[in-house]
Each structure stands twice: as structure tokens, then as C-alpha cells.
Backbone:
């Protein structure tokens, strides 16, 4: 008679959600993507695995209010709150995009108490980009 194999995520053995708060992360990377319509803040560990994320849209801002600096500040605070509880002390910050939430998100990250090793702008810049369309003939 075969022995039943216990399922790893079943409710009976009480392991639901145990992976989320089991990891201690001393150092990580905070990615801020600031567009004109929204600001997304993602916190990863050194390997690049996502630990926590938040955006202005998930914080309850809708429409044009998502692109405001206050919405970016709220999104950054929400994303960082969970990783501070997991023990993150040091972080690198990478900011991408031209949006209004760049400075506000960085201010919220500094206020959280995490030591920043460096702040880097990784906005993609074209090196002369795509070929423009032909001139219109009249």
C-alpha cells in the first residue's frame, strides 16, 4: 500500500504563506519606474528576485492622480514597509523614467531609514534611435 505524500501547500499541515516571511534580506535593490501616468516601485534582493512591489495604482490612486509626486511617495512607502520588517538595512536605488514621481519616491526611500549605497539613473537613452519616416511629398 502506497503512503500518501503530504502536499507542501495544503491547509492541513499549516504551511500556507510560510515562505513569505521566512527570508531575511540584509541588502537589496530598489527599482523606481516613473512614467508620466504611474510610478512603480519594486524591491528585489541581490539576485534580482522580487521581494515586494507597489505602484500608485495599487495604492488607490486613479486617473491623472496616479502620476503625481504624492502618489509616488505613497507607493514607495508601501513597497519599503514590508522589506524593512524583513530586516533590510542597505539598498541600491535605480531610477528609470521621466515622470514626476522620481524625486518624491527617492525622498520617501531616504525617509524610511534604509542606508543607500548608491542612486543610479538607468533611464534608457537612444544613441540616435530609429530611422525617421520619409518626408511628405506634396
Residues:
Amino acid at each position: 500500500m502506497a503512503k500518501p505524500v503530504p502536499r507542501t501547500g495544503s491547509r492541513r499541515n499549516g504551511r500556507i504563506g510560510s515562505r513569505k516571511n521566512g527570508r531575511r534580506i540584509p541588502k537589496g535593490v530598489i527599482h523606481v519606474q516613473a512614467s508620466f501616468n504611474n510610478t512603480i516601485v519594486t524591491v528585489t534582493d541581490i539576485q534580482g528576485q522580487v521581494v515586494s512591489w507597489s505602484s500608485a495604482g495599487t495604492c488607490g490612486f486613479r486617473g491623472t492622480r496616479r502620476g503625481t509626486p504624492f502618489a509616488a511617495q505613497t507607493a514607495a512607502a508601501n513597497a519599503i514597509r514590508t522589506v524593512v520588517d524583513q530586516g533590510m538595512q542597505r539598498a541600491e536605488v535605480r531610477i528609470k523614467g521621466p515622470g514626476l514621481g522620481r524625486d518624491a519616491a527617492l525622498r520617501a526611500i531616504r525617509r524610511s531609514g534604509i542606508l543607500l549605497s548608491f542612486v543610479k539613473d538607468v533611464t534608457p537613452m537612444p544613441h540616435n534611435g530609429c530611422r525617421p519616416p520619409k518626408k511628405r511629398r506634396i
Observations:
- Residues 69-85 form the longest helix (17 residues).
- The CA atoms of residues 55 and 93 lie 16 Å apart.
- The chain has a mean pLDDT of 86.
